[in-house]
Write a structure and sequence with these properties.
The protein has twelve helices and 22 strands. It is an alpha/beta fold and 439 residues long. It has two domains: 117 residues, no CATH class; 297 residues, TIM Barrel (Alpha-Beta Barrel). The protein has a seven-stranded parallel beta sheet. Strands 1, 2, 6, 11, 14 and 15 form a six-stranded antiparallel beta sheet that branches. It has a three-stranded antiparallel beta sheet with strand order 3-8-9, with no helix packed on it. The termini are far apart. It binds iron/sulfur cluster. Iron/sulfur cluster (SF4) binds next to loops.
């Protein structure tokens, strides 16, 4: 166990009592967090953000320190709890808990973070990594969303993209889906029902765990016409980014033949738009095709640049980490903005071999941004499926290293619009509903 970092007041252990109430354990219990297989105290621990939620971890005993010993709080007294952080925060430590007392499915796919009490307030081990105003939760509280969804449904009747986003916006409270109806910032264009990977932490489809998925996958792939109509609706209304590759779909590159004419049409109708794809980066040639058609931004998901971890996590079909790196290179060659969507996990991402490869690959490829995402997954379930790793210095230290060694790379959580060239005249731009060219 590592020494407690900073702050004189003790970190006290929190747990959920059998009646569901959040409680603080009496002295001498002290709180811990987890980094991979290690239990640690070092943070930094910060006040729990206002928009965070507290989750019970049913059947999992809370682990804490009593004097020099690590012990499990008796399950009869209560179970472990965790913080689930709002967007824009990076989780630094996992909750310290033991395995479930009884066999059952893994925990639902959320980003569980360590939670404790210090000096009368709840604290968590986290770092604010991106205050980008577009994504502040306060911007998503207005009560007119259902009306805006109805307006889109009236204008685009029967559109399957609208149908999927309606569920995402109203039931799953997805911000990107809401943006589509609010016609601002970044809109979602879910395009693919299939995938060529089977990620352990896929939030749209769990093929083998039985864990509930927070964003069920679009049941049928939409047509090019439906995608163009939704993109035009968003961009005509003032939106700036349209994005393929959402949490509620599979891999968009499996639909390149359909997406290529979509991108071409949207680019022709909206020369200033950021046309973006979130992808697993499995098909470099397909990304080059989309870039030639007018795609100008991409975010590639990366859990690890190390082949053994990459394969263990993605369970890829027909591609390797070399293809993913080649995808980033091809996109840069075509002048696209390239971000790495780094799926962080304390004790894995900061392991020395992982950090070294991350830094070297980002430098070699010339990525523009590293998005620091908290991987949503049952922590112990995931650790059981990964090869062992040497301990690292922690995610906060990794962020410091990225800042020092990659000063040209932007760190954050969110995709930015690509700076557009000077706007042509309205006539030249032909701004408006994009026409679908013959395929
Ligand atoms: S690449 Fe994306 S859609 Fe495919 S399995 Fe992984 S998380 Fe799910």
């Amino acid at each position: 166990m590592t020494a407690a970092a900073g702050g004189s007041a003790p970190l006290r252990l929190c747990y959920a009592a059998p009646d569901g109430a959040l409680r603080v354990a009496h002295d001498p219990w002290r709180a811990l967090g987890r980094s991979g297989h290690r239990l640690v105290e070092d943070g930094p621990w910060v006040p729990l953000p206002r928009e965070a939620t507290v989750a019970r971890l049913p059947g999992r005993p809370a682990l804490g320190r009593r004097g020099a010993e690590v012990e499990a709080l008796p399950l009869g007294q209560g179970t472990a709890v965790a913080a689930v952080l709002p967007v824009g925060y990076l989780r630094l430590l996992l909750p310290a808990h033991g395995p479930a007392a009884a066999a059952g499915p893994p925990l639902p796919l959320y980003g569980y973070a360590a939670l404790a009490e210090r000096d009368g307030e709840l604290v968590t081990a986290a770092l604010r990594t991106d205050p980008f105003a577009w994504w502040r939760p306060a911007r998503y509280r207005s009560g007119d969303l259902a009306k805006l969804v109805a307006r889109a449904q009236a204008q685009l009747p029967g559109n399957r993209v609208v149908g999927q986003l309606r569920t995402c916006a109203l039931e799953h409270r997805c911000y990107t889906a809401q943006n589509t109806f609010r016609r601002r910032y970044e809109a979602a264009l879910p395009a693919s029902a299939a995938c060529n990977a089977d990620c352990l932490g896929c939030i749209s489809l769990q093929s083998d765990t039985g864990a509930p998925t927070p964003q069920p996958r679009i049941p049928r792939a939409p047509s090019a016409r439906e995608l163009i109509d939704v993109a035009s609706y968003h961009l005509d209304g003032g939106g700036q980014i349209v994005s393929f590759g959402q949490g509620c779909e599979g891999e968009p590159l499996l639909r390149t033949a359909v997406l290529e004419p979509v991108v071409r049409a949207v680019r022709r109708g909206f020369p200033q738009a950021t046309i973006h794809v979130n992808t697993n980066g499995s098909r470099p040639d397909d990304l080059a095709r989309l870039a030639r058609a007018g795609l100008n931004s991409a975010r590639i998901s990366v859990f690890s640049f190390t082949p053994a971890l990459f394969t263990a996590y993605y369970r890829p079909r027909g591609y390797t980490i070399e293809d993913v790196v080649a995808s980033a290179r091809r996109l840069r060659e075509h002048g696209c903005q390239v971000a790495i969507n780094l799926l962080t996990f304390p004790g894995v991402t900061d392991a020395p071999q992982e950090a070294d490869r991350l830094v070297a690959t980002c430098a070699a490829v010339g990525v523009d941004q590293v998005q620091l995402r908290t991987l949503n997954c049952d922590p112990l379930w995931l650790l059981d499926r990964l090869p062992p790793l040497a301990p690292g210095p922690g995610l906060a230290a990794l962020v410091g290293r990225l800042r020092r060694e990659l000063p040209q790379v932007q760190l954050g959580n969110f995709t930015r619009p690509v700076e557009a060239p000077p706007a042509p005249t309205a006539e030249a731009a032909g701004r408006g509903r994009a026409a679908l060219p013959p395929v």
